[in-house]
Design a protein that fits this description.
Blueprint lengths: L2 H12 L3 H20 L4 E3 L3 E8 L2 E5 L2 E8 L2 E8 L1 H7 L2
Organism: Alkaliphilus metalliredigens (strain QYMF)
GO molecular function: DNA binding; identical protein binding; structural constituent of chromatin
GO cellular component, one term: DnaA-HU complex
Length: 92
């Protein structure tokens, strides 16, 4: 499902216009992005949690030359952890 499909599904379920559904989806995504950039996590009970995790620096291999060891710097990565209710619905 891509963004257009999701907007259409949201519009159908909420009886909003596609334009309003897209505005709501964009607002949600921007709000989550802002929270993560500010170092907050977003918890939606039953659905899941969006948060940022620190990744330690580590060594890796150059894909073009597997004998060459390269240093991979520390970074931050956004992650989503599914909530209990979502997991249960998927595993039915």
């Amino acid at each position: 499902m891509n963004k257009a499909d999701l907007v259409a599904k949201m519009a159908e379920k909420s009886e909003l216009t596609k334009k309003d559904a897209e505005l709501a989806l964009n607002s949600f995504m921007e709000s989550v992005e802002e929270a993560l950039v500010d170092g907050d996590k977003v918890q939606l009970v039953g659905f899941g949690t969006f948060e940022v995790r620190e990744r330690k620096p580590r060594q890796g291999r150059n894909p073009r030359n597997p004998e060459q060891v390269i240093e991979i710097p520390a970074s931050k990565a956004p992650v989503f952890k599914a909530g209990k209710t979502l997991k249960e619905k998927i595993n039915v």
